[in-house]
User: Fold NAD(+) diphosphatase from Thalassomonas actiniarum.
Amino acid sequence: MNSPALTFSQMSLNRASSARKSKHWLLEQQNKADTVFLPVWRSLCLFEQDKLAEFTREQAITGQLISQASNCYFLGLDGEQAVFVLDLSELSQKLLDNLLTDKYQAKDFRSALPLITARQAPILAYGRALNHWHRQCQYCGYCGGKTLSLDGGHRRKCQSESCAKEHFPRTDPVVIMLVEYQPPGGKAKCLLAQHHNIPSKVVSTLAGFVDPGESLEEAVSREVFEEAGVVVDQVTYMASQPWPFPNSLMIGFFARATSDEINIDNDEIVDACWFSAEEISTFDNWGDAGDNYQLPRKESIARYLIDSWLEKQAEKQ
Ligand SMILES: [Zn+2]
Assistant:
């Protein structure tokens, strides 16, 4: 099944899961002249003016990026060309500035998204999420021993001989759902909420982390009831999207409410209302000026769910 063209999905790299287990093969890839290195510093990526900085091996050596990086992780193959992430996160701000000179700028990934191509976005998101996991997993969660990166950065192993536990990259599953209510004989409406952690004029879908011991459908029902006091009886999968802030997988659903009664939990959300397709079509975009309601960012799966619902309503007419 083809997934929709959501930002951060549609990965073009072959992850070469078997080949990357060989140290010899990885070294060969690192030493090829056309191999691409993408440096990251904590949550920032490097740009040369308004273009994502992609370094060849020679450029990365000359610019001292390889010698200054604390780690180098293999992402995959673009045809025959290998792509690696260089982790500069252990450098201080001052050392980073010295390294970059005036030619390169470190920019926040999220605010720099308009400068990144559709092909680059999933690669960089993947590199950032992998890098984040490595920074979190320097020490073993079982015994506190130091861990070592293996398989080009796709496995870590505890260095304590008595423990030797293996650790693998993690993704946090998050359900995100557009809740619809269809009144008998009336027009469908959908539930959108104002959230504590996004600008107050933005209304978006509900979302929440999946609990241990819970199916995705159960997580949807629980989150909708906890946040808005709404009961849903039908949950349908729509699409998923890697969300590298820092390492979630957003799993999108449509859910059908059994009534339009709302009972907000203000610890979870600021407010929630039912909106018709006509009302939503008058909303502005994220970041627009004015006091009108705004829709979520265009790169988000929340926006995809809302746009898909609007299309469905238009088809009904
Ligand atoms: Zn251990």
In short: The CA atoms of residues 195 and 269 lie 5 Å apart. The mean pLDDT is 93.
